[in-house]
């Protein structure tokens, strides 16, 4: 008999099992709570609630540890490629040479998207935010692959859905960008590896030869690896909960893209650059913005600071900060916004408000600066995050379905009006 935790209520004591993960994380299993006590729990923002057991990502926020399938983020960012890490998180183990060659080949063969997707794209106004376009077009894949809607598909068919979305997301993302520019789209170049192909679809123009810069492609590979998975969070839990209704992989990922879009989540990378540019345009007075961030009557927050789970440092931010210096030096970019960022970080890390609340730069604080150096426009930053997070979402969706998890359906504490009779409009 393992540990238990007891809850006393109304003169009775109830015992609940304490479950332990492989890294000794402990949680109270309250799945029988309502049946035995009539109570539910209330935990706004799920700050203390585990929604699932998962074997994909281990995150220790106090010690700044992030591992995918047991491999540290530092190790993977240094030694692996985005597609190899994608294979690892989705299928659970690093691929053998043969497995990787097949995965890579399958993806390369599915990079084209249906021509009719271009008609849908043409229907968007050119100022449409690429995240909205991306979410809509990913959802539209269900129309082109209706068999993906069958919840009882074979493992081979699920594999094909996975291959298609990993292969097509870069194409659709680049097309969403081209739509914003009002430019013709580029078709995939299957002679290039994943990141270089994406860069070419983003930046090539018909009349000129385009050769992706290996420094840029390498930096992109690293950035995408850092974003691959982050255990349960707003977008990932969205993917799992949408998928728990047996909705297709494509619709679940489309929902995840929408969840990622907000400025408190993936949208923060765009918000960080906008904030840094605003500070610069306003004379570069970092202290003024620090004061605004601390003023409870001012809705302004220091974007790129703070994290729900990292309370010491964000290991991804450390890797990115180092990479930002290297990439900027290699590309010979001198970005004044980087200086503002460094100044802001220095002041914030010493400020009691930020120290007491354990607010440190997160992954988004420096990622925007690298994206800028790579020539990626601000509106596309969150799309880049989505591109990186895709394998994590797929792995989480797959794990949830393979574990046969029940449909997600939280409870609530109702605080509205009690029963009252309808009043006719004339009498109100
Ligand atoms: N600037 C100023 N104050 C902040 C900030 C910030 N960036 N972040 C948190 N606080 C304060 C907050 O006002 C609160 O103060 P008090 O205790 O006096 O009320 C305290 O710190 C705790 O904040 P919280 O909002 O309760 O913390 P949370 O865990 O709910 O929110 C967060 C985490 C990331 C949403 C939040 O820190 C934030 O809004 N950061 C800015 C947006 C951002 O950079 N988001 C990217 C997150 S990393 C990418 C990803 O994984 O999605």
Order of helices and strands: EEEHEEEHHHHHHHHHHHHHHHHH
Distance between the termini: 61 Å
Q: Summarize the biggest pleated sheet.
A: 3 strands, antiparallel
Uncertain segments of ≥5 residues (pLDDT<50)? Answer: none
Indicate how many domains the architecture comprises: 2
Percent of residues in helical segments? 40-55%
How many helices? The count is: 18
The CATH H-level homologous superfamily of the largest domain: Citrate Synthase, domain 1
Give descriptors for this structure.
Citrate Synthase, domain 1; single chain; mainly alpha; 3-stranded antiparallel sheet; Rubrerythrin, domain 2
Would you kindly provide a written description of the structure presented here, covering whatever features stand out?
This protein has 428 residues and is mainly alpha-helical. The chain contains 18 helices and 6 strands. It has a 3-stranded antiparallel sheet. It has a 3-stranded antiparallel sheet with strand order 4-5-6. β5 (65-68) and β6 form a beta hairpin. Carboxymethyl coenzyme *A binds next to α17.
In short:
This protein is mainly alpha-helical. Helices cover 52% and strands 7% of the residues. Residues 45, 230, 233, 264-266, 268, 293, 301-308, 357, 359, 362-364 line the site of carboxymethyl coenzyme *A.
